[in-house]
TrEMBL record:
It holds the Pfam family Isochorismatase. The lineage of its organism: Bacteria, Bacillati, Bacillota, Clostridia, Lachnospirales. InterPro entries: Isochorismatase-like_dom, Isochorismatase-like_hydrls, Isochorismatase-like_sf. This is Cysteine hydrolase. Residues 4-166 form the Isochorismatase-like domain. Belongs to the isochorismatase family. Keywords: Hydrolase. SUPFAM superfamilies: Isochorismatase-like hydrolases. It comes from Lacrimispora defluvii. One of its GO terms (molecular function) is hydrolase activity.
Amino acid sequence: MNRLLVVVDMQKDFIDGSLGTSQAQAIVANVKKKIEEYQAAGDDVIFTLDTHEHNYMDTQEGKNLPVLHCVKGTAGWELADVLKEIPGRRFEKNTFASTAVGEYAASGNYESIELIGLCTDICVISNALLIKAFLPETPVLVDSSCCAGVTPESHENALNSMKMCQVTIL
């Protein structure tokens, strides 16, 4: 089987940094296990990295979410310690979804594409729907046990929204 796993923004600032939550901390072991399963099967694993500069607060996102996070080159921008040595292409993105990830997925002739990571209600849903737009006939899946939202309620809302858009929730 030729599958793709997209690991979304498993960065320190979203886990235990400026925007960290206990729910995000709780999924790290599940995420690592899922990555290992994909790699053991010979499937592709890629990572997205939320990437901002020091002028973040001057951007539209910064004005709407005034918490400095994932500034390139800082400790908070790095992947979680247990993930950062894992091989896989990295895609830096300065917004919620990455068109480069969509293009990469579309070029791979994958039988399915699964997303895991942070935050369910912002970047995971954005990338899942973007990939679905690139590949409407390819199954897109999200493993809810490997995702966390800004809040538990917004996590559930995002999962329900993705279901309505024909993303399979595991």
